Amino acid sequence: MEAQTTPKLKKPPKPSKPFRELWWFFAAAACVKLLLIPAYKSTDFEVHRHWLAITHSLPLSQWYFDETSPWTLDYPPFFAYFERLLSIFANLIDPQIVHLQKGLNYSSNTVLYFQRISVIFSDLCLLHGVYRLTRKLDSTRQKLIWVLVVWSPMLVIVDHLHFQYNGFLLGILLISLSYLEEGRDLMGGLVFAVLLCFKHLFAVAAPVYFVYLLRHYCWKGFVRGFWRLFILGAIVVAVFAVAYGPFVYHGQMQQVIHRMFPFGRGLCHAYWAPNFWVFYIILDKVLAFLLGRLGFKIQAPAASFTGGIVGDLSPFAVLPQITPVTTFILVLLALSPCLIKAWRHPRPVRITRWVAYAYTCGFLFGWHVHEKAALHFVIPLAIVAVQSLDDARHYFLLSTVSCYSLFPLLFEAQEYPIKVLLLLLHSMLMWLGFSAQFAKRISLELAKSEKKKDKEEGFVIGWVGWSYLVGILLVEISGQFLHPIILGDKLPFIPLMLSSTYCALGTMYSFIWQLKWILDS
Length: 521
Fold this sequence. Notes:
Its main location: endoplasmic reticulum. GO terms for molecular function: dolichyl pyrophosphate Glc1Man9GlcNAc2 alpha-1,3-glucosyltransferase activity. It is a multi-pass membrane protein. The protein has helices at residues 18-35, 43-57, 77-93, 109-122, 124-134, 139-150, 153-163, 166-181, 185-196, 206-218, 222-249, 253-260, 276-293, 324-344, 351-365, 375-384, 389-405, 416-448, 462-486, 494-520. The relative contact order is 0.10. The longest helix is centred in the last third of the chain and has 33 residues, at 416-448. It is built from 20 helices and no strands. The N and C termini lie far apart (70 Å). The protein is an all-alpha fold.
């Protein structure tokens, strides 16, 4: 008899190690960022270098009083402490980096490489936040979110070319959201309080956090709820005490607040963030022109809409003047449907959407909004973009237009191919990723649906979406090529005004889409 051979059992597949795979995504992004070190850098580069010098050369009691440079310290204390930590290493590499006088406009290779690499290392915080939010997802969704966040062209343009630390700060935000989604409300509130002490502009989402935590964590009966509210309040107060305590001790809180909230700046930033106020300004200009032609005496405003350094408030020739209080009220009104929904149905799975919507409201209606603030809602929305086909379509258009709105930040000719290539590559990766994610799901949904939609398969954005994307191409061609040929140096503001207005349409679409989702959910 022939000996019976037992069949060989197949080895079970090795369990995936998402964090190790995520490291490869981070390493690939870091290689690209290292190649961009010699590229363009904005005045923000000197701003942060000067903050290194302030926090290293001066005692804490003088940090918010120093006026050696126009770029005074105007971030909250935790960010100042962060700069102080970086200055220790900067001083070891090149002492002139942190010299208050000799370091002004210092541009050696040592300061260039140090500050660029410091941003890359600070992105590890973003990496941790992304990992926490995606570790329980399937592999396809994980990798798609990693592409959208870790390889975000907006972060490359803003942080690693223009120069800032948004990836680090957004990482803290994502960590906070991950705790809230897990139901760990105290940790989520603690981390968000820490974020506010790093950059106060994230406070736009504070009403959402307050209402959600009050309803979801504290609303548990009178005694238990009061005790939980006390614990939550004590944690937040403790964080702010650590941040601001030294300045309270020195009697400097008024000066710190004055630096952090310079409301004397103009309504709009120098590059005209694509928000609601673009339409308001253009309408004022058009009305002033038409009324002038009709014989009315319209006094042209002397001050600027885009004051970057503290000055007069933004003037209007015809329409009512806009004050910081006006913008604050508008933001709260826009936020109110979200706050009502968060109170009635405080579900952890929705908190990321609500926070993203809050930052969209702040971007659209806020005072002196920077175009870079689009990152505050684009990055969180990447987390929910993989949840449904509608979310993916919305994110594809929003991410594309938001990235394009950052083009004016890189205005030198040698950076033009870089920003175009980053946008095109990002759009292609989004398209391929969303198509892979939703192709099978769409086929199943169509098979079960009573309506026949045989022609609509896979990831599609429709003719309206395509028309809008083609419009971006036409706007760019007209501003970059046709305007210099036809008008030369005349009316140089038209390309920026045109692109900001067109991008504002996309941002308004996103706001309406998110609002509709909140109302329907």
